[in-house]
Design a protein that fits this description.
Length: about 290
C-alpha cells in the first residue's frame, strides 16, 4: 500500500512534459519526440491520426477507447501499451472527460522496420498490457537516460535502450504470470543434474500439469520442446568441459550420461552444427589440452 501511495503522489506531482529530440540521428534509427502528458484526452475519433512514425503510448492512468483502420476496437485501461505504426490510422479517446495520463515515445528507423518484418511489431496486435505500472513507466523513461542532463546523448544509445525495453515488454507482456512461473520452474528442473535421465512425465507431474499440456505450454513460451531445451543445455555443458578441462570426448560423454562417444558426437553436431573435433579446432587451446 505504501508503494502504491508513493506512486500516486508521484503522478500527482508530475506535469505534462515534452522533449523534442532532433539534434542527431543514426542509420539504425532515432527517437524524435517524447513526453509525459497528464489531463490529456487522446486522439479524437472524429479525426483519426496517421502519425507517419512509430510510437509507443503507455497508459499510466485513466480509461479510453481505441480503434484503428484494421478494425480493432478495444477499451484501454492503465497498464496498456499502444504500439503505433507509421501508416495505420488510429484514435484513442477518453470520452467521459476524465483525466488521462500517458508517457509516449515517437521514433523511426530501419531497425524498427526489421522488428516489424520479423513479427515482433505487428499492426494486427498493437495493444500490449504491462504491469506493474511503476516498473514499466520507469523502464520507458529510462530510454531517454532520465533525468535529462545537458550535453549530447548519442542517438544509437537511445535506440538501443528502446529496443531493450521493447524486447523485455515483448517477452514479459506476452505470457501470463502463471505461464512464466511454470517455465521458470521447468527450466530449473531441466537444467538440474544433467547427468541423470529425466522423465518429462514425472516433471509435468511435479509442475501440476499433464505431460501434453506441459509440452505445449513450454514450447509456446520458450520456442523449443522441453527435451530439446535439455539437450541444448547438455551440449552447452559439454562446451564448458571442453573449454575448462582436459577431458576427452569419451570422458565427456560418460560424464553427461550419453551411452557412448558416438551418440554424444551426433547430439553435439545436431546442436552446434559441428562435430566435437571441428569445434575444438576453433579454439587451439582446446586442441593442445585434449589432443
Amino acid at each position: 500500500m505504501a508503494r502504491l501511495a508513493n506512486f500516486l503522489y508521484y503522478l500527482a506531482m508530475r506535469k505534462s512534459t515534452l522533449q523534442l529530440r532532433h539534434t542527431g540521428s543514426h542509420p539504425f534509427g532515432r527517437i524524435t519526440l517524447a513526453g509525459f502528458l497528464s489531463k490529456n484526452h487522446g486522439v479524437s475519433f472524429d479525426h483519426p491520426r496517421v502519425l507517419g512514425h512509430y510510437a509507443v503510448v503507455y497508459v499510466v492512468d485513466g480509461n479510453a477507447e481505441y480503434a484503428d483502420a484494421n478494425g480493432l476496437h478495444r477499451t484501454l485501461t492503465p497498464g496498456d501499451l499502444i504500439v503505433i505504426f507509421p501508416e495505420l490510422a488510429h484514435a484513442y479517446e477518453n470520452r467521459q472527460g476524465r483525466d488521462w495520463t500517458e508517457f509516449f515515445l515517437v521514433f523511426d528507423g530501419p531497425v524498427f522496420d526489421l522488428w516489424r518484418q520479423c513479427g515482433l511489431l505487428d499492426p494486427r496486435q498493437p495493444i500490449w498490457h504491462l504491469e506493474p505500472i511503476p516498473y514499466w513507466l520507469q523502464k520507458f523513461e529510462s530510454v531517454l537516460g532520465a533525468p535529462r542532463k545537458p550535453g549530447h546523448v548519442p542517438p544509437l544509445l537511445e535506440v538501443a535502450r528502446l529496443q531493450l525495453v521493447l524486447a523485455e515488454a515483448r517477452c514479459g507482456g506476452q505470457h501470463s504470470a502463471a505461464d512464466r512461473q511454470l517455465v521458470d520452474r521447468a527450466c530449473a528442473l531441466l537444467e538440474s543434474d544433467l547427468r541423470r535421465d529425466l522423465s518429462l512425465n514425472e516433471l509435468a507431474r511435479q509442475l501440476g500439469t499433464s505431460p501434453d499440456s506441459f509440452r505445449k505450454r513450454f514450447t509456446r513460451i520458450v520456442g523449443v520442446p522441453p527435451a530439446q531445451y535439455r539437450r541444448q543445455r547438455l551440449i552447452e555443458r559439454a562446451c564448458e568441459l571442453m573449454r575448462h578441462g582436459t577431458l576427452r570426448d569419451k570422458e565427456i560423454a560418460a560424464t553427461l550420461g550419453f551411452c557412448d562417444e558416438f551418440h554424444f558426437s551426433r547430439a553435439f553436431k545436431a546442436v552446434t552444427g559441428k562435430s566435437p573435433r571441428e569445434f575444438r579446432r576453433q579454439f587451439p587451446v582446446l586442441t593442445r589440452q585434449c589432443g
